[in-house]
Amino acid sequence: MPKKCFLIMPYEPKFDDVQHHILSAAQAVEPGHQIECRRLDENRQAGRIIPRLEAAIRETDMCVADISDRNPNVMWETGYAMALGKEVILISHCDQPLPFDLNGLHHISYVLGRLKASLLESLTTSLRHTAQQLSDQPVRPTLESALEENRRYAIQTAANEAKIAVLQNSNNEFHSILGPLWESKMKSLLISSTSWNPSAYEGAWVNVESRSQMYFKYIDGQLVAPYCYTSNTQLSGVYHDFRLDPDGRYIFARFHWIHKPITGFAFFLKSESADSLSGAWWYDHQTPANINQMPKLSSGWSSQLRRLPNEKTPAWAEKFFELVKKHGVAGAIKVLIDLGAE
């Protein structure tokens, strides 16, 4: 049976080509994982729109959400779908950084003038993987189904309260509307049964393959690692959102370039010594980031990190640490991106 995919996006002419490429991506998925995509405006039956919108999201298997321009309706619908536990593939213009609440999620950046090259292949891959994941999920037992229904009712009640806030002030940011609900959901996903000590990684490190130097620092409960690609002269990007997978087998991290629209993620095997990390990294468009399932290391770019015990932290890294203390990780990255755009 085909998987249902609901499109969450602005209803503006400039997004018509984006919708066309989303539909093309769905059609490009193999017959074994057939996907049916639709938008709410395809059904113009009489009656109130909001109940039909809620029902469409409840009944879908997955969503593709274009969060470009931070459209308030799109942001609310995206939050509602996530609160219901739907698989959501985020896409947006490449020149727009993600809001703080969504910064750790898999995301596809596209260029409006180059949609075939920047969106079609990556989205086709994400849709295929998501359809496969949904097909592999076991059927819930009857008792668990009842408990799940109760949970969904509680989440829907909270989402309805958030909807009232949107109607009162359509300019509210996504995290101020669904922040408490989303924060609670994320905390439940990030809690690991295996303890670890992120501060043990503080200090200077080098990537053996690229000769990039990075500097780990534990600030306000978060491990962050600014790095200089292939050298040690200036800030190129940042590793952040370090965490263990739920079974404590490996370390997950995201990376974000400062002066280019490049994002991705990495996995490092936890069994390495305190002075060595071994793993691989991937661009976001290569494969979906899933902390519960590490891709084959051979499918990514090898990343062998070695500690530099006597290396002093340079000024460009110290400057970034000060920005993190003042603005948080996402805020520090935004400050530097804005400075580069001036």
Plain-language structure description:
About 5% of the residues have low confidence. The protein has an 8-stranded antiparallel beta barrel with strand order 6-7-8-9-10-11-12-13. α1 packs across α4. The protein is of the alpha/beta class. 38% of the residues lie in helices and 25% in strands. The protein has 2 domains: 185 residues, Rossmann fold (3-Layer(aba) Sandwich), CATH 3.40.50; 144 residues, Beta Barrel (Lipocalin), CATH 2.40.128.
Features:
8-stranded antiparallel barrel, Rossmann fold, 7 helices, 342 residues, alpha/beta, 13 strands, 5-stranded parallel sheet, 2 domains
Which secondary-structure class do the elements indicate? Answer: alpha/beta
For the record, the CATH architecture of the largest domain stands as 3-Layer(aba) Sandwich
Low-confidence stretches: 139-144, 184-194
Provide mean pLDDT, rounded.
81
CATH fold node name of the largest domain: Rossmann fold
Widest beta sheet: strand line-up? 6-7-8-9-10-11-12-13
Instruction: Indicate how many domains the architecture comprises.
Output: 2
The fraction of residues assigned to DSSP E strands is 15-25%
Helix run count: 7
The end-to-end span amounts to 51 Å
| Computed CA radius of gyration, to the nearest angstrom | 21 Å
Topology pattern, helix = H, strand = E: EHEHEHEEHHHEEEEEEEEH
What is the top-level CATH class of the largest domain? Alpha Beta
Largest sheet: 8 strands, antiparallel, barrel
